[in-house]
Design a protein that fits this description.
Blueprint (H helix, E strand, L loop, with lengths): L12 E4 L6 H13 L4 E5 L10 H9 L6 E5 L3 H20 L5
Parallel strand pairs: 1-2, 2-3
Length: about 100
Amino acid sequence: MVDTQQYNPPLFGLNIDPSAKNLELAYNLAQLADSTKLDFISIQDHPYNANFFDTWTLLTFLGARTQNVFFWPVMGDEEVQAKIFVEEIVPEVMAGIAGDKS
């Protein structure tokens, strides 16, 4: 019997703390992730916490300063998070691995 199932390679990344007092650390971690060509950077979304940066603003700030990683907002609702990851993030990362980072 021939195995016809397609396997995707594992993805590797890191999570950056969105704390407003750690912007330099967030920037340095994003640069490290980018230079080592990790697949993604995730940032938790804490809209109720005034001590954290707005997730989308931080994603944009770091995304404008990197070239090789994809960004992923981590939301509290695991079902929504999984759906976004499977339907949007994974195809983007796989396209990037295949060399199509347009």
